[in-house]
Amino acid sequence: MGRTVLVTGGTSGIGRAVAARFAADGADVVITGRHRDTVESAAEELGVRGLACDATRPEEVAALAGEPAGSLDVLVNAAGGLPAAPDAGAPPLEALARQWLSSVSANVLTAVLTTAAVRDRLAPGSAIVSLGSIGAERGGGSYGAAKAALAAWNASLAAELGPRDVTCNVISSGYVAGTNFFGDGMTEERHRRLVEETLLKRPGTPDDIARTIVFLASPGARHITGQTIHVNGGAFTTR
Length: 239
Ligand SMILES: NC(=O)c1ccc[n+]([C@@H]2O[C@H](COP(=O)([O-])OP(=O)(O)OC[C@H]3O[C@@H](n4cnc5c(N)ncnc54)[C@H](OP(=O)(O)O)[C@@H]3O)[C@@H](O)[C@H]2O)c1
Description:
Strand content: 15-25%
Bound molecules: NADP nicotinamide-adenine-dinucleotide phosphate
CATH superfamily: NAD(P)-binding Rossmann-like Domain
Number of domains: 1
Helix content: 40-55%
Strand order of the largest sheet: 3-2-1-4-5-6-7
CATH architecture: 3-Layer(aba) Sandwich
Order of helices and strands: EHEHEHEHEHEHHE
Distance between the termini: 42 Å
Structural class: alpha/beta
Oligomer: single chain
């Protein structure tokens, strides 16, 4: 029987590539996203099941408790992104507060709530992988701070779940093209600059990240936990 896999934010970009990889391997995959129409169309195209669920909303996340049915082998917390655009008319401190709450909510709370909803069903030998960012290491503002918090949470989660033989890791992704992450905020100049920062002189692809996640959920990665794995073409090096 195939493995059971839950991918939050599986309708586009990295989460979608992850779902496609596990589905091709015969897994029972469930993807989520906030919008019913995109969830349904992505699920149909991928041949997986889809559930509309805003991972920042506890009452919606509670509905994931039985998805997929039975025990869970892989949880991928891909839902996340840049903070909502500031409200033009809001007083500066209110706008700042909203930006920070939006970043933390989108990038930390999503993973914390989803993991809490399914953790009792994680089978021995299972894996949790959460999507972090190179922004946690340098100049990421509220978004980077939220991704740094995600990595700190991951370390404590790994300590809690390690005795159950559940691994927990964060992928620190650099610039990945072919996603909706930047919205209309990508320019040719920005693209050039981000590519130039890499040692491989190319952006990442969603599949670069998906393949790393497949590895982290494989038997060959059973002694890797509590880590931040840098998959960014060398744009950030650990030494
Ligand atoms: N692309 C990059 O260069 C890059 C770099 C570093 C890190 N990352 C991280 O990689 C992860 C995946 O992003 P991506 O690049 O693949 O961007 P993307 O194409 O925008 O995908 C984000 C996915 O998350 C979903 N989502 C967002 N907020 C959600 C919520 N509250 N609840 C449920 N689903 C939610 C989106 O669907 P809906 O909008 O329909 O809900 C979509 O399926 C994110 O955590 C992002 O921060 C990306």
